[in-house]
Amino acid sequence: MKLENITLHFVEMELVSPFETSFDREVFRPSIIVEAKAGGLTGWGECVAGSGPWYGYETVQTAHHILKDFLIPLLLKTDWHHPTELPKHFSRVRGHNMAKAVLESACWDLWAQHEGVSLSKALGGVKTEVESGVSIGVQKDISTLVDVIQGHVEEGYQRAKIKIKRGWDADVIQAVREQLPDVSLQVDANAAYTLEDKPMFKAIDQMGLLMIEQPLGYDDLADHSELQAELNTPICLDESLKTLEDVKAMLTLDSGRIVNIKVGRLGGLSNSVKIHEHSHPKQIPMWCGGMLETGIGRAANVAIASLPGFTLANDLSASDRYYHEDLIDPPFILNPNGTLTVPTDPGLGVKVNHEVLKKVTQHVESYD
Ligand code: OSB
Ligand code: MG
User: Fold this and answer.
1) Atom of ligand 1 nearest to the CA of 321
2) How far is CA 88 from CA 64, 104, 182, in A?
3) Domains of the chain, CATH where assigned
4) How far is the CA of 238 from the centre of ligand 2 (A)?
5) 122-172 pLDDT, tens per residue?
6) Tens digits of residue pLDDT in 187-230
7) pTM
8) Of all protein residues, whose CA lies closest to atom 1 belonging to ligand 1?
9) Closest Cα to residue 206, out of 167, 173, 254, 255?
10) What is the distance in A from the centroid of ligand 2 to the CA of 2?
11) Which atom of ligand 1 is nearest to the CA of 161?
12) CA 97, 98, 104: angle at the middle one, nearest 5?
């Protein structure tokens, strides 16, 4: 398969409510939507690089540079047979996983459509529904947070993830625990702490959390190993895992016991499948993380989360939790049992809403 044209749609989407983490407060989310054409078919992908280098070093602008100057010219002259070959073709470019992932996702969509199978099937998915959790940003006070969690639980979400940062941690979790004792809870620090904060982690270790996500440095494994040794609650690594080698090192060092799979951070669906193949036989629990994607990125996430090793609730919420109008029609809705349905039509299995896409697009570039 050889791509004939690649179009980049630079979009900006307003979130339903601002999303505050230890590193940023987001109101608008920018993204690059990739539209790739070959043999009369169109494949779509969504880049998860953010407005600034806060979660990882990539931004919309670094992704743009890597896409237009390196990856797109390379892909346009490559004749490939299966999307699992693409990481090798992209390997001369070091890092820049989010830029690689968006092109590869569009190719997976194309390839699955060409084969007449859903992306889920193409990746080895087995589930017809994936479990939905919700990620909740820092709120203005504890009672607001409790109300927000309560509201999501009533909607049907299976677990809540609370973002923590210095000054918004143990006391907050303690209060939530007291007021909502039965809710399935986990926390995400987005790398806000150091080993000096061990006393805070020891305190929340007593609060019945499913996991503590990325407590320490965004690139760290050694300090996480030291912290994990002193906690009963499993650590889940997000930012620290960029490659299969990182996952292997995490397991060797016992730096964490749960893997957050994010397709963008890991450089694509092929690498994500490889990590699943490595971790699932070892019974390492996995779940799919999110980056506030529109329905285009969400469809790829739902497909990967349908693999058998995704045993924990995912950060895959319904479209209306993120945006008033999604880029796909129909949007993802939450089933009453707290799941999203895995699309079964060929490829991503969702229809892009061109009207909404046009409305949120700031500019377009086309390459062939
Ligand atoms: O750490 O999981 C994270 C969003 C942006 C950057 C990092 C993270 C997140 C989320 C959002 O938690 C989860 C979602 O998309 O529902
Ligand atoms: Mg995280």
Assistant:
1) 16
2) 20, 11, 46
3) 5-116+354-367 (3.30.390.10), 121-341 (3.20.20.120)
4) 5
5) 999 999 999 999 999 999 999 999 999 999 999 999 999 999 999 999 999
6) 999 999 999 999 999 999 999 999 999 999 999 999 999 999 99
7) 0.96
8) 190
9) 173
10) 35
11) 12
12) 85
